Amino acid sequence: MTQVAEPMTERAAGAAAAVVPHWIGGERVAGTSGRRGPVFNPATGAVAREVDFASVEEVDAAVAAAKAAFPGWRATSLSKRTEVMFRIRNLVETHRREIAAHLTAEHGKVPSDALGEIARGLENLEFATGVPHLMKGGYSEQVSTGVDVYQIRQPLGVVAGITPFNFPAMVPMWMFANAIACGNTFILKPSEKDPSASLYLAELLAEAGVPAGVFSVVNGDKVAVDRILQHPDIAAVSFVGSTPIARYIYETGTKAGKRVQALGGAKNHMVVLPDADIEMAADAAVSAAYGSAGERCMAVATVVAVGSVADPLVEAIGKRLPKIQVGPGSDPASEMGPLVTKVHRDKVASYLESAAAQGAEVVADGREHSLYKDSDGFFLGLSLIDHVTPAMDCYRDEIFGPVLTVTRVATYDDALKLVNDNPYGNGTAIFTRDGGAARQYQFDANVGMVGINVPIPVPVAYYSFGGWKASLFGDLHMYGPEGIQFYTRAKVVTSRWPDPGTSKVDLGFPRTR
Ligand code: NAD
What we know:
By secondary structure, the protein is of the alpha/beta class. It folds into two domains: 18-264 and 471-492, Aldehyde Dehydrogenase, Chain A, domain 1 (3-Layer(aba) Sandwich), CATH 3.40.605; 268-452, Aldehyde Dehydrogenase, Chain A, domain 2, CATH 3.40.309.10. The protein has helices at 56-75, 78-94, 96-106, 111-128, 131-134, 170-181, 196-208, 222-230, 243-255, 278-290, 310-320, 342-357, 370-374, 393-396, 412-421, 435-444, 480-486; strands spanning 19-20, 22-24, 27-29, 36-41, 46-52, 138-144, 147-155, 158-162, 185-189, 215-217, 234-240, 259-263, 268-272, 300-306, 361-364, 383-386, 403-409, 424-425, 427-431, 449-452, 468-469, 472-473, 488-496. Residues 6-13 have low confidence and may be disordered. Residues 162-167, 189, 191-192, 221-222, 225, 240-242, 245, 263-266, 297, 398, 400, 426, 467, 471 line the site of nicotinamide-adenine-dinucleotide.
């Protein structure tokens, strides 16, 4: 059984390294592949540091460390693993501001948003402290005379998580909390755009007493991902990112015999019925469309304005936009930060060009913001496009930036058709005062997560998170009860104990009657 280390009294400094290394075998390991990528400060546009890109051999080293750690970690008692999960939870809570600083520095999100991300990640750590209860199996006594049957759940072994840039702390926590609580060893391949938070989390886990090899970080790109997908000693892969990569991860990983859950992109529709509270709906649309500069998989991308609500709603949204303070996360007044890279910012801005060319009305153009024009940071102001049709690029593509589109429809049925015809099905919301209409929408929407007068319906950690259609490939949703299912497999034991005189030879198929 693994000896769980006592927590260290002093933790290594949290400052980001000039070159972000890997975390293998319980320590920082500098890359040897000779390949690196830039990590930007999105608020200034400068390259703040670099990140090592792992080779096949470096991924193999992490897998070997994880494989070696698995037998001991798996045999570590549930109560010890629970204790470690509590310590991780407390350390993340204690150091949430340092984690948030990494997020602001590399992702660009403002501190209040970064702290919100960590709070939602903490929920997953708290859920995982309940692992003794969550891993309970079932027991059936006397299924036949003197025979009992019981089911236990066991960890899979070495499992891996590949995560996107937009939640550099929360999405890893979605995965590793349940994975390691269940007794697996976990390898994280974070986004190469903002890797420092993962290294910081690795240090916290070590301080919490997670043994070497139980949690590893390999930084990198497609080379590392492809090795994870092919490595024979990795049993399961969790992925969160864009739809084309999610599809690739699912197809490649399952072909290699792995259990895979791959969460993809989104185009979340917020349906507003004519009876909705306009002020509430406008507040919600603005918060959910522009929070985190629209770089959320649960961001509202499209408002579907039904009937007479369109004009007053667009006006109410438009009125709010100039009041939102855009700026660097280092300025406490900033409510919305920059986008993650210049390439991404420019792609987002291009939809304003194509929307106008394709006949939509650009009500607010973020390219007019002074920080777009004059700063080297990757800023774009809040943008609003009205009269958008399903044929336009700005409707069809996931923009993933501070651009909200409005599509006007005549009836509830038209709105529902739009939502259900969309290839994505991550989240959706309906705004109305009519309980019957809301209940009908909840029944009808072909989408995995539904909000009723709630624009970002990210489930709490004791439910599971997952979209439908092109927003998720695989059977099980992420975190919560389905996360426990994903990271464990069932074993069913049928048992009988010697009872002198009752045993006989019988070549018939075993029957209970
Ligand atoms: P991405 O798909 O570009 O990258 C995700 C991960 O895949 C990263 O670790 C990256 O290094 C890796 N990757 C990228 N290209 C690859 C390739 N060709 N082969 C192998 N691996 C590759 O996504 P992103 O830009 O980092 O994140 C934004 C996307 O993630 C958006 O589409 C957003 O909707 C989605 N997302 C979805 C959810 C969800 O829960 N459904 C949550 C957050 C983000």
